[in-house]
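<given_protein>
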Amino acid sequence: MARKETAADAANPGRLKQIALTYKMTRRADKKIGLVLAAVGIVTFGVFLAIGFLIGHPIYLGILGFLLAFLATAIVFGRRAERAAFGQMEGQPGAAAAVLDNIGRGWTTTPAVAMNRSQDVVHRAVGKAGIVLVAEGNPNRLKSLLAAEKKKMNRIFADVPVHDVIVGNGEGEVPLKKLRTTLLKFPRVLTGPQVTTTNDRLRAMGDLMSNMPLPKGPMPKGMRMPRGGPKMR
């Protein structure tokens, strides 16, 4: 019992610190976050308290209003924090990979399975929807890189659907903040064992760049890429 209480006490400061850091991060991008949260909480509590006085139960409705005000504030804070996070991530290298890493259970993601010397990349996610190739970088350069990777997947996995997504704000592209939702909307056509088999086959394919030392920082201009781009895990 004492151990559980100690663990809980140690976890609470961590949660509070995380909330505080999230608030500070959100406030840098959303200056009105404090006023918005205060307004949501006060208005929600005030409405229920007023209803309580009208029906003669101010205490009960006041307590209910307080709980709902806290819930509404938490929901609004979560959404605005998420929007602020995506706003800061958008346009940054690897932003799509970060979103894929948090897509949820049932998905296996592999960042940078294909890359060109301009550092446009294709990431891969495998789930019950099949194989999803997610590309980020310059849309014009990505088309050939994405097409080559999709052709390879279709050749190896004839019985597995292969989808492709380009992250961006242009026509036919998917905004970063909608990437997770887009993947989750794909029809689920594979069973759990089929997903496992697909992942096993992908791992068995090996890694083209596993034994090749990669330079740190920007790629040297004179370095030639293998045809189809390097495959990285």
Summary: The chain has two domains: 15-89, 95-211.
